[in-house]
Amino acid sequence: MAVVRRANELFIAGRLEEAFALWSPDGIGIPPLDWPERGPWNGTAEMQRAFESWSAAFGADWTTHLAVRRELETEDGRILTEYEFKTSGTESGIPVDQELAGIYTVHDGRMVRGEYFMSHGDARRAAGLE
């Protein structure tokens, strides 16, 4: 769980290069089903590009509006992280209050897979916790 926790700390602090350095270079990211950027994202470079659009929508410091609400280890060793994202659109000013979640697989001390969800409940069900 420590590597996922550290990656989240770095990501939220805006230290994206350091956060992605904790991933295996050939890691895979699976976006939510209704995500605009289709996946899977193969490798850390594709994952980083997928998140670049968030800077345009929410500002360069958008990661600082993300907070970890809960971390759980599943029976099969994956890590479920539940996030809360509260901000507003840079141009529209429309407030955003969104649940997000990721289920991470770690192998040999590096993150190798992240599957993302738009709700905590969907992630818990996918992780076999509900």
Structure, described:
With 130 residues, the chain is of the alpha+beta class. The chain has a single domain (2-126), classed as Nuclear Transport Factor 2, Chain: A, CATH 3.10.450.50. Helix content is 29%, strand content 38%. The protein has four helices and six strands. It has helices at 2-12, 16-20, 44-58, 120-126, and strands at residues 23-30, 41-42, 66-73, 79-88, 95-107, 110-117. The chain has a six-stranded mixed beta sheet with strand order 2-1-6-5-4-3, sandwiched between helices. It is globular and about 40 Å long.
CATH architecture: Roll
Return residue spans where pLDDT drops below 50 for at least 5 consecutive residues. none
Alpha-beta content class: alpha+beta
Relative helix content = 25-40%
Number of domains: 1
Distance between the termini: 20 Å
Tell me, rounded to a whole number, the average pLDDT.
90
Series of secondary-structure elements, N-terminal to C-terminal: HHEEHEEEEH
Q: Give the DSSP E fraction (strand runs of 2 or more residues).
A: 35-45%
What's the CATH class, please? Alpha Beta
Global shape: globular
For the secondary structure, the number of strands is 6
In what order do the strands lie side by side in the largest sheet?
A: 2-1-6-5-4-3
Question: What's the CATH topology label?
Answer: Nuclear Transport Factor 2, Chain: A
What is the radius of gyration?
Answer: 14 Å
Taking the sheet with the most strands, its summary is:
6 strands, mixed
The number of helical elements comes to: 4
